[in-house]
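Deviation from plan, reported transparently: magnesium ion complex.
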Amino acid sequence: MADIADLKIGSSDFNPDKYVRELSQRCVGGQELQQQYQKIQSLGEDTSAQLKRNVYQNYTQFIETAKEISHLESEMYQLSHLLTEQRSLLAALASTSLLGGTNAGAATGGESSTDVTAEPEKQFQIEDEERRRKLTAALEKVEGCVDLIESPARSVIHEGDLLELDPTEGTAMQRMHAFLFNDGLLLAPWIPNRRGPARYKFQTLIELGSFAAVNVRDMGSVKTAFKLLAFPDTRLFQCTSNQSKKEWLEKFEAAKKAALAQEQPKRQESVATSETSPVRSSSVDSSSGMNPFEDNCAVSSPDIAELPEWLLELPEDLDVCIAQRHFEDAYALLQKANQFTFPTSKDPQLLDIRRKVDGRGRALIEVLMKELEVSPDKSLQGGLRAARRAVRLLNQLGRSSQACDLFLKLCSSILKAQLRRVKREGATVVYVKHLGGIFFSNMMDMASEFLRAFPNSPSCASALVVWAGSELTHLTSHLVKQVFMPQSPISTLSECVVTIRTQCDQLTSLGIDLRYQLDGLLRSPLQRALSDARDKAVEAVKLRAVEDKWRPTNLGNKDALTKFVMETGLSPNHMQKYVQGESWIVLSASTVAFTRQYLSLLEDCLRLCTTELAHTVDQVLTDVFGAQLSHVEVNLQSDKLGNPEKSFIQKNAAFLLSELLPLVTKTYQERLNNPCQTLEVLKTKFSWMKPADGDGGEPSPAPAPAKRPTPLPRTTAPRPAPTKYSTVTEYI
Amino acid sequence: MKKPNTQPALHKVIMVGSGGVGKSALTLQFMYDEFVEDYEPTKADSYRKRVVLDGEEVQIDILDTAGQEDYAAIRDNYFRSGEGFLCVFSITEDDSFQATQEFRDQILRVKNDENIPFLLVGNKSDLDEKRKVSVFESCSRAATWGVPYVETSAKTRSNVDKVFYDLMREIRSRKIEDNKPGNSRGKDKSKRKKLKCVIL
Ligand SMILES: Nc1nc2c(ncn2[C@@H]2O[C@H](COP(=O)(O)OP(=O)(O)OP(=O)(O)O)[C@@H](O)[C@H]2O)c(=O)[nH]1
Ligand SMILES: [Mg+2]
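Because the crystal trials were delayed, the predicted structure below was used instead.
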């Protein structure tokens, strides 16, 4: 079934309305529908969880890929460098193995053949390749001039060995190798004891415009020389022959002339283009698509010109902002971009920017969500305040639901961390009070922070309520495990529960009422605890019954007596009847103990009582009281006891029925605003035990009870009277 | 300070002027005592010669530049290295005389020195019948520049030595002046040199 649902929902033509209709037709009864609903819900949860996981995985993969790419990039650089080295090495090998002339001839031949066949750009490319190759090959031999290769337009015009002479004395100084480039002269002395591929060591590169070559007329030892005037230096170089000197001087001149010629057309061109460009664009308008390159230029360049600079730099700026955690700035930039009305044209650059900006927007959201995400290695020190910024920005970015989700998760982990710090030591009540205090005060803070962060958002508010509910469930299940144990006295439990309830009620000030949920969660454990308490109390009644000697009780001193009377809350006037002397009370020890126990039980029950628990509470109160009354009844009907004892027992019965029970029902009525039906039943049921005068009367041998149900024949004693209370029956 | 003791002082002279005025002819006459009738435009030639100047052996370094140099920018590199200039025109060609103003301006700009050793030379004085530039005209221009004016002939060797020696003298005296401590001009230079001496 679930698989079918999966299939259907996953399909592209999924129609939710139709699906639901079919489902509701197929399902019989609410139960089945409920099941379907749960199935779909769990499917939805699974899907969202998977989505989250996928997003995260993609993100990490993206980062890794980016790293990998930059890695690859550097490797490619190295590779290309190696390749150029290899190529120049091979070229050098070729040129040394072959005759220079044939090599050059082959090279020019190749060039001329390309001239014919190849398009101009291609030829240019080939020439450029050639130029680069030559340059690389040349500079391969020079140590310390790798950067010179990178100059895009540099080419070698001439090179050769020279002997540098002292300009004043004309004596030999050092062996030089010189390269004349189109833009300068490189001078590199020979390396005396060379190792490795480099033969020369870079000395200087003189710009073409900043030196002058001068022929030196032979004089004395200085022959076949030329001079370089590179202010402030004048350097003298001797060539190997007059021919080579002539060549050098010609090349210098040619280079200078070429440089000047290049400069001048450039100037002219710049003037020309500024004049002609409008003409060109208009011509394109009239006859578009004549030349794809020109067309492209003409169309995109005005667009690009229109694009503001900030927009072009936006992706990079966003990267910087995000990296430096200037999230607000990043958001402002994104806003600016969103407000910018992108031209509708399909210009690739615009689309690219748009795409990049969108990507950066997503990245920003990811980073912000990461901010909020809880991870074990992340400190929760900052608390919720630290999350404010990210939440605010995510809200602004329209990611409230994710922000809300993450925020609540953060709350959960903060809460958990806080609660974990509470050690269980000392009294249970103290522990629970502490735990609950931390739980609810945190929840207060979190809820108010939440409401501040997500104002006017009903969906977020409901998420908060759901979250609070689930946190409360956690807390209660913990408390149930920790506190609701068979050995825990009901008094402790009631105190704990009352504490938690009061703390829980604080939340109503923020409009969050979890009381109903809390009570609901505690209902069954409390029911169990209450029945336990009842069983214990009944057990105690039974134990005391065994030892009941039906004699007045000495409480020890007057104070204890007064205390007892005060504790019971019975009216002293009424109690006067039961007081004898300084410290005696004309009630059996069992009655006194029961009174104490029952009143405390009553208090606990009343404190715990909620509408849902009322039934259980009634039962507990009635059962326990009934057990005591049964004990009295049994003894009153007993044949073993004589009249004086019977009279005393009757007095006890009178106390229980006329003093204690009315007090209990009254208190019950006062506290719960409704009478306890079962206790009323008890009153009528046992009312025969009350003395005829309806009052306890003097502690004197009372007459036999006026009403007596079927006096038992002595022979059949000790058979108990039939009673509803099985426990009591068993007890006998 | 060993070199100046072993090597004679070197004075760098630059020949400037329009093409065909006789710069090379003057240089060759000075260097080799010969006159070349054929005109072969110069690119840039450098000559060196040991001469005795007022009893002191010195070296003269002559840079004969191209008068036909189209590109004024290239001349800057030559001019920078010069210590003194012979600005030559042909008395038979007014254009060459007019051009001297341009050369003068460029030299002053490059050297940035009003008092650079400089001679205005009117060549081809042997062709007086073809004179186009009057002595008066030339003298007054030289006067405005504050430089001597000399008329020469490479062909007859008239005043050839004089212009070179006069210029060398000026260069020499300028160097002495520059080396004088407390001189208003080139104070820094002299200081630097003095400092150098101290170090050496
Ligand atoms: N009659 C006469 N002819 C001269 C004199 N000086 C040079 N000439 C001639 O003028 C022509 C040009 O002389 P050059 O010395 O080569 O001229 P230049 O100034 O060096 O010219 P560029 O090198 O082009 O700057 C040659 O034919 C020389 O023979 C001179 O004093 N008298
Ligand atoms: Mg010449």
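The pocket of magnesium ion (ligand 2) is lined by residues B 23-24, 42, 64 (CB under 6 Å). We consider this an acceptable substitute for the interim report.
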